[in-house]
Amino acid sequence: MEIQMKKLASGFTLPALALGTWGMGGRHERMADYPDEAKDIAAIQKAYELGIRRFDTAQMYAEGYSEEILGKALHDVARADIFVTSKVSPEHLQYEGVIRSLEESLERLNMEYLDLYLIHKPNHEIPISETMKAFDALMTQGRIKNIGVSNFSVESLQEAQACSMHPIRLNQVHYNLLFREPVTKGLLAYCQQNDIFLEAWRPVQQGSLCQQGTKIVDDMAAKYGKTPAQIAINWLLGQDHVVTLFKSSDIAHVKENIGALGWSLEPDDAALLSHDFPIQLDRSNAVQLG
Ligand SMILES: NC(=O)c1ccc[n+]([C@@H]2O[C@H](COP(=O)([O-])OP(=O)(O)OC[C@H]3O[C@@H](n4cnc5c(N)ncnc54)[C@H](OP(=O)(O)O)[C@@H]3O)[C@@H](O)[C@H]2O)c1
Asked: Which residues bind substrate (predicted)?
């Protein structure tokens, strides 16, 4: 299936839907004797086979093991055919820390460059100007093709952009039917006005938005002949400047989530979900960021 593309006014284009890797190989720590590597690899390869071309990982995930798993899964794929994002952890945002982190990520991924490199989370102990200088150097060297951030507020995003030579393409934040902070804090509007992608992490709230039992979603699922997960993902992708990424190590879930593409909620139904979804929280409760 051809995955829908989204384009900024600047011309920067991304596949709207990506596969994430948080949890593959462990969470914050590399899991010893991890039993699911083959399953993760099969899910990543199935996602590729079904048309997914954008993949997301991070230095922090399983202490780099998620990057290794992704690298193994994509080993035989032409590099130019995929778009790979990774992230530098907040404790490594010093100039040398960024340069070293990127090299280590590339080694684990077995790749020569990243398509997009993100600051995983702000660290107010380290001047953002120092971090952006390192990102600019990596851009100049061609080791990264685009820069972005994650979990940045409007203010942090403005500060980062002010000291970067290159445009910030994307801010990855917690956003789904349940968690609305990007809307309530004006971040989505800021990204739309400033031509930056807002990438919604945790689009199905780790599976809870895949369940039946919320009437408004169940009604919508029945009307469109889709599942709750597909409704949740389609609602995000119908929004201006919004892209998203889900994690799954289950081939059936990968197929299901890709089925969120290729059709659209009617604008009135999307608006209904925006206004009437019964629980709306305006602060991320993610204790551990993926
Ligand atoms: N920048 C950040 O701070 C940050 C934070 C969190 C996440 N992220 C990125 O965003 C990606 C997605 O977020 P996430 O992994 O936290 O949450 P998510 O994609 O909302 O949910 C993933 C979980 O939901 C399950 N799932 C997925 N599709 C399903 C379906 N159709 N039916 C039933 N269960 C389903 C998966 O289980 P199965 O594997 O069994 O399918 C997995 O346990 C991450 O992998 C990561 O790359 C970034």
From this structure: 120
